[in-house]
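Quick one: structure tokens for this chain, please?
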Amino acid sequence: MIIYLLCVIIIWLFYIVIVSDKSLNKPPGPIPWPILGNLKLLRSLSKKFGGQHKAFLYLADKYKSNIFSLKLGKSNFYVVSGYDGVRKILKDDNFDGRPWNEFIKIRNMGLRKGITMNDGKEWKEMRGWLIRCLKNLGFGRVEMTDKINNELLIILDKLSSKNGDIIQMKSLIAPAVINVLWSVATGKGINDTNRLNYFMDLMVRRASAFDMAGGILSIFPWIRYFAPKKSGYEILVKLNNELREFLLESIDEHKKNYVEGKEMDLIDMFLKEMYTGQGPEAGFTEEQLLMILIDLFIAGLQTTTITLDFLFLYMTAHQDVQEKLQNELDLIVGDNQLPQLSHRQLLPFTEAVITESQRLRLVTPIIGPRRVLNNTIIDGYNIPKDSFVLINIYSVHSSSDNFSNPEKFEPERYIKNDVYVPDKKLILFGGGHRRCPGEILAKSSVFIIFTGIMKKYKLLPVSDKNLPDLEPIPGLTISPKPYDVLLVSRS
């Protein structure tokens, strides 16, 4: 009798949910279970298809809708696919908000600061200040490219002793990317090898821990009280404390040595605002500076390093493309020179290769979450205020409506009459008010490091029978599976 009654209650609840969704004109989606919502289904589909972005694509197709709903724990999410819907979200101010749940509080060390997981008036002002600051520090000018070129020379020096060896490219790329970011933030690179390796390892460990703990802690934040170790909460707090201490050392050093009028880096320029500019009452506090630095390193290190790693993977797997790219570099750059940013417009095929690799393997195939600031409508459906939206960029880049043979690595798709013409439906750095503020630095770093290495070296498969696996490791960000290359000097 009790079992029968429970079945009736469950069926009745499901019926109420379905009728309610239809009457409120909500997007379609799978029926949620009590407490868990659709978490189990999403995990199962992600495992089956090889990532959350592919699971979302399956669900959009299943419900014949570019927007569908999911219940994850007690939170309502709406997943948007397709070019039109994605562009609306990116350009509409109604979607500029961010959630402030327990998982994001952990990510932000309890600080509603910074430029990534914050919103509102203070966020707009800090984001505007950061963009102006980066321009003053030489973004897009010689000052910035000199920093990247210096790191390229260090990489090439290391590679000179590895000619004919089997190596993994990522281990050489990551230190260079960190040092470019570190020099922007602090005015100089990390010269101490042990300190550099520690920081690099700390960022990798932190990214891995958040990747593993993200789902469960964001949906069931209370679990950290009952299972702090198993939920990943304990390690996240430990890694956050390590990162805070590491960055505060540099902030404290800058505070001791600060001289007004001689600001040479991001920390100095922030201290100027804090001491003699707009001041703490306008949000220029030490906590704000700490969070901006964390946002800068989290965004810049992971995406730039992995983007380069995918590029070298594709060059290893596609020897014909590598040969064509190197022929173009030889023709335009010359025998004993390294590519400069000034060569970029003269290298259409090289630019097309970089773009195609990012289209196929965008490091963040899903972006968000966004918090809806006002009741609004997407694709004819009502989206209530304070609900959450996830944006499936992968759905745009993998659609045959947007790109012919979308699963094929085909740089030539962007070449028209020997000129590089990027497709208007590419979304590589977001858009709107939340477009990546470090886009210029990321593009410049990728171009200089990638072309510099490809000008000097061939990357060959270890053997014909041991070709690298092009399928990525899924997660909050995707990355290549570890792969080896045979490094051969071209000179």
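The mean pLDDT is 90.
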